[in-house]
Amino acid sequence: MKISLQYSGNYSKLLSSEIHHKIQTIHHLMATRSGTGADYLGWVDWPHSIHLESLREIQETADKICEQSNVLIVIGIGGSYIGSKAMLEALSTNFESSHPVEIIFAGHLVNGSYLKRLMHYLDSKEVTVNVVSKSGTTTEPAIAFHFLRNYMENRYGEEASSRIIVTTDENEGTLRSLAIEKGYKRFVIPHNIGGRYSVLTAVGLLPLAVAGYDIHQLINGAKSAAEEYSKLDLEKNPAIQYAVIRKHLYDSGYPVEILSTFESQLKYVQEWWKQLFAESEGKAGKGIFPTSVLYSTDLHSLGQYIQDGQRIVFETCLLIEKVQEDLTFVETKQNMDQLNYLNEVSLHEFNHICYKAASLAHLQGGVPQIAITIEQIDEEHLGHLFYFFMMACAYSAYLLDINPFDQPGVEEYKMNIFKFLKKPAYSYNRQLQTK
Amino acid sequence: MKISLQYSGNYSKLLSSEIHHKIQTIHHLMATRSGTGADYLGWVDWPHSIHLESLREIQETADKICEQSNVLIVIGIGGSYIGSKAMLEALSTNFESSHPVEIIFAGHLVNGSYLKRLMHYLDSKEVTVNVVSKSGTTTEPAIAFHFLRNYMENRYGEEASSRIIVTTDENEGTLRSLAIEKGYKRFVIPHNIGGRYSVLTAVGLLPLAVAGYDIHQLINGAKSAAEEYSKLDLEKNPAIQYAVIRKHLYDSGYPVEILSTFESQLKYVQEWWKQLFAESEGKAGKGIFPTSVLYSTDLHSLGQYIQDGQRIVFETCLLIEKVQEDLTFVETKQNMDQLNYLNEVSLHEFNHICYKAASLAHLQGGVPQIAITIEQIDEEHLGHLFYFFMMACAYSAYLLDINPFDQPGVEEYKMNIFKFLKKPAYSYNRQLQTK
Predict the structure, then answer these.
(1) A-proximal residues of B, 160-179, CB under 8 Å
(2) Hey, what domains does chain A have and what are their CATH numbers?
(3) Which of A338, A347, A426 is facing B111, going by the closest CB pair?
(4) pTM for the model
(5) Is the bond preceding B280 in cis, omega lying within 30 degrees of 0?
(6) pLDDT tens digits for B261-296?
(7) Of residues A120, A300, A419, A422, which has the active-site annotation?
(8) How far apart, in whole angstroms, are the C-alpha atoms of residue A14 and residue B424?
(9) Is A300 noted as a catalytic residue in this protein?
(10) Which has the least CB within 10 A, A129, A306, A347, B404?
């Protein structure tokens, strides 16, 4: 299993001795855990270092949840939300009769109506809550947990403690103290793995297991990726290739990258990718702005801009070779809808032709093209793909001389909130209300 | 009812005599229907020119659909999809017991598994299909309709004709001929209203009415907007203000606009906005790249880039003054989650504080800020908002000397598809399959 990467430009020409040297240096810094942010390189060996025992514990907890509940509420934001959401959406099937356990997210938005109606909806269900927060102090999920903990305690009394599971840092945070005091089951996010690199830890694994998917296959896929993408091979390692091409395009005046796909179930994989790259690279006035489109629908929307607008974008298409289910076009006698030219074309083939057509048009319109292809969408390939992007992202950020593992900008608005709410609360809110 | 617009810069300073002159010229060209693309200015007077009789006909058809069906399939892409989707999502409530008639979209994506499972799902429902296509020839919805028409004919026999409704151009297109031959009920998209300006026609009105929403209020809101935003007033007309500010920021080196909101139900209003501006402005190597974020979740994702990344973005926040349902924080005795500082703050107030905090932080980080505020989300305010954006978009494109009403770039990939599939189909597909 391997990701294949195509680029519309001449890749070999990008491999200057300067790039060779830089990539070698980054590879060395990563291998020796000595670069900026090296305290957060825990994800690099994670697929190999996670114990079978840990996987078993997650699976057992998932099985217990499935026995006692038909809804799992996952409370989280950022890296504690989007990776799980991405996997569940990617593996889901349209119009399927619902899973034994329905998974509902909360805490990624602050919305009174949503929470109120969620709690009403839960009244007729059996519920477990998994609250996920690395720091244990982020306000948005803390607010959701505040209301949902209250709901669970009112509804289940002492039993609530056995229906609340906390995934948080090993050593610190409000959530950790609360979990210990209340006796909640705890899973650990390793201190050396940052939120947006944590999808392969209990953060993503527990919801995935509860939904009935194979967490061992996910880790297996990541393992094979760890082997492939740790190689120092500028010619053949697609994680390095992707980083080198991105850096070249960024330097050539393309500050916006569009991740496109024809697979609607990859929509939240795109969102996960956006967080990964935006938070890892978008610092010190630098970085590629990551955005996404879903085809065909966005060919009739942003497609016009991509084709003809200001020449600031390049495009990376995430392609899937095989789909598990398809329809094939059969010509009709009367050809009233004039579609007989599609005879014997499957819809997946149509999308592939559509991709070739759009990619060629966009390239001719001045939009450099990258294609990242995986064979199919399943647990193993997702694990592989996540790891690929994390490795490519680390290289990309280091190539910009950026620490890929901090997020200083996210703190700014948090500090303002704190400042605003430290004012005598009532008078401030009054002001808001009378506006 | 009016939209209020705030800008972090000094708006008066932007009103040079050149801008005054340009806006006057555009206003004159729009009023006299004499600018580039003037053949497609039908949307300008539409809220006033649509007949009560037409609204009554749409409502009657909707009532009939509600009697005979519990699922309405809306087949469309681009402007024939995203406006309806935006309205239905904006007005929907979380976890609500489903509407009498469920509305399902198709044709915006080409996906065999989706269509197959949709048809299986329909087996236990009573179904009406509304196929929407201005040109009547766009391939993606045509493919979906091909399979769904076949499904309807197999299932309902001759009755299928009374369960298929076509919304298309008055005078031309394959779909129109088919509808006439088969005797389908037809609604007209006026020839002088382009797809992305068609949300207030039968395109958006029929699905909205079927879902039980008030189409008269939608048109009323658009009417008041038509009155407000047709005024030649650079100081007070927010549609002109928005266009002038956007042009200034574009000229000042900000080629990317992020439309942010805290209201998750406006997610597809953001998508509608992206199509409107991307297709109207993104031409001739010009235009602002429109993209969107949803807060709080994206404050823990793209937020880092917005705060600290390359200084190419400005931000427009879509704010709602009042929500219909909310929760208010009540302090706890033990304060175990350390959130008592939120005592008596409602979650909507929290979001507003969060907005102030993020907007201030982003501004200080070098991201110019625009705020567009509407009072609440309902049919009337949505109609008003859609019209506001359409008017602002026309001014914006004209300020760039761009025809706001064509989309030449969308044709490029279509021509390639046609070219590829004109090759002896079988051999070409064989090549694809063996890759």
Answers:
(1) 174, 177-178
(2) 4-35+219-403 (3.40.50.10490), 42-213 (3.40.50.10490)
(3) A347
(4) 0.96
(5) no
(6) 999 999 999 999 999 999 999 999 999 999 999 999
(7) A300
(8) 38
(9) yes
(10) A129
